[in-house]
């Protein structure tokens, strides 16, 4: 995970795409952290990757949101061979269940206390 995990990804000028990955993990997590770190490293190399947000509840619900400039960047991530291998391992070992939602963002804005705000 990146060092700025407590700062949400900024609001970008739409349109762009998001992939929302919501998980419940199994008790068996051997190798998960290393693979997760490698996946973050890989996705950051994709032209059009904008950022990633993570959240985890104490009860085990995890949410990861990946932001992509266009559908092509998202497709490049989805079809990456190393990512596909990690997905298979995730289904076999690390995830009790998950959902994936992909959406095109048509409106986006953010707020930072003390910063000058612009309407979008």
Structural account:
The chain has three helices and four strands; from the N terminus they run E-H-E-E-H-H-E. Strand 2 and strand 3 form a beta hairpin. The two termini are 30 Å apart. Helix 1 (32-44) runs antiparallel to helix 3 (81-94). The mean pLDDT is 92. The protein has a four-stranded antiparallel β-sheet with strand order 2-3-1-4. It is an alpha+beta fold. The chain has a single domain (16-105), classed as Alpha-Beta Plaits (2-Layer Sandwich). Helices cover 29% and strands 31% of the residues. Keywords: Monooxygenase, Oxidoreductase. InterPro entries: ABM_dom (IPR007138), Dimeric_a/b-barrel (IPR011008), Jasmonate_Hydroxylase-like (IPR052936).
Q: Any idea what the CATH architecture is?
A: 2-Layer Sandwich
Q: Total number of helical segments?
A: 3
CATH class: Alpha Beta
- The SS-based structural class is alpha+beta
Question: In terms of per-residue confidence, which ranges show pLDDT below 50 for 5 or more consecutive residues?
Answer: none
Major β-sheet annotation:
4 strands, antiparallel
Radius of gyration: 15 Å
Supply the number of structural domains. 1
**CATH T-level topology:** Alpha-Beta Plaits
Instruction: Tell me, rounded to a whole number, the average pLDDT.
Output: 92
Amino- and carboxy-terminal Cα gap: 30 Å
Strand order of the largest sheet: 2-3-1-4
Instruction: Encode the helix/strand succession as letters.
Output: EHEEHHE
- The outline comes out as globular
Helix content: 25-40%
**Strand-residue proportion:** 25-35%
Find the count of extended strands (DSSP E, 2+ residues).
Answer: 4
Domain ABM: 15-89
GO molecular function, one term: monooxygenase activity
Keywords: Monooxygenase, Oxidoreductase
Protein name: Heme-degrading monooxygenase HmoA
